[in-house]
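Two records follow; treat each independently.
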Amino acid sequence: MSQKPGLTIQKAVTMIKPWLFPLGVACLYAAGFLLAPENTEKALGKSGTIFRQLGFPLCLCLVMMVVLNRFLSPKTITRLLGKGSGIKGLVISSLAGILSMSPVYAWYPMLKTMKDKGAANFHLANFIGSRSVKPVLLPVLVGYLGWRFAGLFVLACLAGSFMTAGLVSLVCSESSSR
């Protein structure tokens, strides 16, 4: 007896599964509108604000992931940010971290892609740690607290990032990365 080409239960579950969370959230908002419309409207407004704030960084990260996947081979990533990349990898990961904008969690998917392509844990951790230095805010820091404070602060942030990256690299060996 052959199976009909129609919709099977397994196919239906596979099609519905990605929509379970959004549908669940929509149901919760609908229930909220019935029980407390004013509070639900405020919550929906705050959710919209968060979505608008995250929309651009997540899209930017997605574009960067596509570019990474399209133009950078695992061999290139390993050469630039792999375990043996030396001072060059440290400089690249530090500068990339300093120049990156938006919330750090928007960068996690891209960092995962880079890790899968051969980037070392050290450089990924250094990227995340180097994000504490914000070039846009340096003039304000200098204006309020002076050059000496600002310079020492930046150097301490970068040194702390370097030490944290070293610790992460030691504890999370490349072979036991999951």
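The next record belongs to a different protein.
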Amino acid sequence: MKKNEAIKVLYIDDEEVNLFNFKLLFQDEFDIYTAISVAEGTKILDQHSIQIVVSDQRMPDKTGIEFFAEIADIYPDTVRILLTAYAEAGDIINAINIGQVYQYITKPFQAGNVLNILNKAAEQWLLKKENEALIIQLKEKNEEYESINEELRQNNEELYQTKAIAEESELRFRKLFEAANDAIFIADSLTGTIVDVNVRGEK
């Protein structure tokens, strides 16, 4: 079983030997996909749920930075790693700063160094997904609480209306009770004690 079984890594390089070696080095840790061109890599991205994309900077059809700039909005969840044999410090730093590139690796690379970067990239992707799941849960809880609060508000409004109706009924009864021409006595049904009497009754 692969250590990072849930993580799919796409490696794009225009040299077949590099593709073969990359897959050989890291296939025990990750599910590795390879592409010999940016166009082929794009097809793989369209067909599979890729978490990490590693691309060589120098490609025949376009540079790795150009490719990452294109897919950054289409596949925002992918962690993008640039492989470069030469220093384009300004372009690379700019690509990192605007979120197109997560990290870069210089060629020739050491397998241990690349594995460390891939592991960190996998951790970042998993952490991001966990955070997104937590945000969804919090949103659902918030909606649930809002629903409960709305129900309580409606219940309180109904109670207030019921109380207002009861008070209005009591007021009407009291007016009729006091204005009656007949003497009215109200007694406790258990003890027979008179508990209320109108003005006519008092007289």
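Discussion point: The radius of gyration is 37 Å. How would you locate this feature using only the token line?
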